[in-house]
Amino acid sequence: MSNHSKGRGLQAYAVLYLLFLYAPILLLPIFAFNSGTIIAFPLQGFTTEWFAQMWGNATLRRALTNSLTIAVSASVLATCLGVFATRASTRFSFPGRGGMMGFIMLPMVLPEIIVAMSLLVVLLGMGVQLSLLTVILGHALICMPYAIAILSTAFSSLDRSLEEAAFDLGETKWGAFRLITLPLVMPGIISSLLISFTISLDEFIIAFFLAGNEPTLPTYIFSQLRFPRSIPVIMALGTVLVILSVVLLAIGEYFRRRGNARIGGAPTGGLL
Amino acid sequence: MTKPKAMIECRDVHKYYGDYHALRGIDLTIKGGEFFSLLGPSGCGKTTLLRTIAGFEDISSGVVLIDDREMGDVPANKRPTNMVFQSYAIFPHLTVAENVAFGLRRDPRGKAEKAAAVDEALAMVGLKGYGARSAHALSGGQRQRVALARALILKPKVLLLDEPLSALDRKMREQMQVELIKLQRQVGITFVLVTHDQEEALVMSDRIAVMFEGEIAQLDGPEALYARPATRRVADFIGVMNFLPAHIVADIGGIVTVDVPGLGQVQLPHSQVSRANEDDEGAMIGFRPETMTLVGAGATHNQPRETNATIDEVVYYGDMTYYDLRLDGVARTDGKSRTVRISMRNVFGRDVQEVGTRTRLAWSPGSLVLFR
Questions:
Q1: Interface predicted TM-score (ipTM)
Q2: CA nearest B56 in A: which residue?
Q3: What are the pLDDT digits (tens) for A48-80?
Q4: Are A162 and B89 in contact (CB under 8 A)?
Q5: Same domain membership, residue B324 and residue B252
Q6: What count of CB pairs under 8 Å joins A to B?
Q7: What range does the domain containing B106 cover?
Q8: Is B83 on the interface with A (CB under 8 A)?
Q9: φ and ψ at B292, to 5 degrees?
Q10: Which of A3-7, A148-152, B84-88, B140-144 has the lowest mean pLDDT?
Q11: B104/chain A closest Cα distance in angstroms
Q12: Taking Cα atoms as reference points, which of A153, A181, A159, A177 lies closest to residue B89?
């Protein structure tokens, strides 16, 4: 009896908790399709005008293109570098390994504003023109720790003798890596790409500091919040982004599970 | 008959890991077609030596020759050796057939010929028809067979096996031991096995190198190794051996006369003399449990010497009974009586003797080994 009522209490708590977390996100699509320009209840009527406006907005399209370019480049760069670093740190022991990995992981705990500021000072000092490229480099820097954290799990759970066996059977070192290691760590690589992509896509401070005149999605959204008129468009944009994130996450999880099933692992862990 | 040629030769091979001296001057010749074992406790360097032959480890100094070719800088993928790893290292994302065919990727033969070779290799290890299965769904014994097929399909001159049976349960292990021997006879190539299991080494090998701390302590056939261990440490490591303190009375003309409390005075030729451990105080006589016979209760024997003893403990094993005996005349040390273990086969009509029984022990000087 008491067990039952206790369970009720916890259940209610869990529901409230989830509501608190996700209600704001649920509001996005609601107001994105609301015909009123003021973000308030009661709702006025159904419209897709905000989506049309969003699509017609050239600056927004530019910001979106920029953000996607940055996110794709930064995630690919961070993941490639992450693969090299992780393989080196899990397979070989060399002097200064611990310190080196520590420095690579440092941006994860360093306040982003410090990273952004110091990068800006250095880049300006070197006379580098601020552009998308500088944002890509900055994002790769802050994505690396996450990429490595994910890839380390994939690499360290790999039996060392697998690659040796491939080498012993006549493959070259590169062939052994490509044919054996790479397919087995592929789920980790995909996870790393997705996480890095997400981190880069919504990153504000570094983009704000290092992008020069180029808008990215977060900096564009921030700049538009001053104009109440454009808030419904931002809501529409938010809705698209939420759907995109869910789709990406689902794809990532699908690949992770498939990879896991292929090597006979239990379907545990992961993001979902 | 011509002597089989040397397949693997190690000459004064040393290996350092930083300051750690893992291999301390290994001299070794393994003949073609031989089933050779490297036996020793963990950390003795046996796996390092195997990986040195495979080409996974560089040697610090010395020479390794395989099939009369110096291996110096030849990497593992260019050596005529293949390895079965302790973890089997089956590629989990490939099917059984893809695993077995992995080494044929650079083979110029056509698809059909390769498929036939894979089928043949799988049939050889008793996995006919398993080709399409995915590798991660296999049992331990099946993984081992796939690993064997994958290595043997390349027809290497030497197959290296790194503790291949240690992950299997006892029944499976014994079955695989026999299968490995048969397989080796069938393919006729040199097998080099690393194991810490002395029984496994005795069962399977033509010759065994016993290793301690990076050195070969003894290299012999299984029977010689068991009956005439070269050092007390080898004797301790392989099987059960009883030890009794001995006093050397004389050493004249190749015959050592020793006085052994409990057994009396014995004369042994130098062929029965081995090296004691460095920390041993004085000489020791050693003998195996099955070389002596408990007299009485219907046991017959033709051993020349007899000694009086009391049964201290009886351990019944079904097919065998172990008796711990106190020999008359053996001094008690530290308040405990020194006992020796004798094993007797239980045959129909012979009763198991009881604890406390006064009995006699029959033995031959030929079964003794003197460690000095």
A1: 0.84
A2: A164
A3: 888 888 888 888 889 989 999 999 999 999 999
A4: yes
A5: no
A6: 64
A7: 6-227
A8: yes
A9: -110, 155
A10: A3-7
A11: 8
A12: A159
Q: Which amino acid is at B155?
A: K
Do both B206 and B353 map to the same domain?
no
The answer to whether B284 touches B243, Cβ cutoff 8 Å, is: yes
Q: What is the DSSP letter of A177?
A: I
As a residue count, chain A comes to 272
CATH number of A48-262: 1.10.3720.10
pTM recorded for the entire structure: 0.81
Q: Which residues contact B211 (CB under 8 A, 6 or more apart)?
A: B38, B39, B40, B44, B45, B46, B49, B217
Q: Where are the domains of chain A?
A: 48-262
With an 8 Å Cβ cutoff, are B105 and A170 in contact?
yes
The Cα–Cα gap between B221 and B203 comes to 11
In 10 A of CB B350, how many CB atoms?
16
* Domain presence at residue B235: no
Token pair belonging to B162? 């790194």
Domain presence at residue B232: no
**Residues B304 and B255 placed together within one structural domain of the fold:** no
Burial (0-12, 13-18, 19+ Cβ within 10 Å), A56: exposed
Same-domain status, B277 and B309: no
Distance from CA of B90 to the nearest CA of A (A): 7
**Of the residues B206, B227, B248, which one is the last residue of a structural domain?**
B227
Pick from B103-117, B177-191, B276-290: least confident: B276-290
Q: Does B133 touch chain A (CB under 8 A)?
A: no
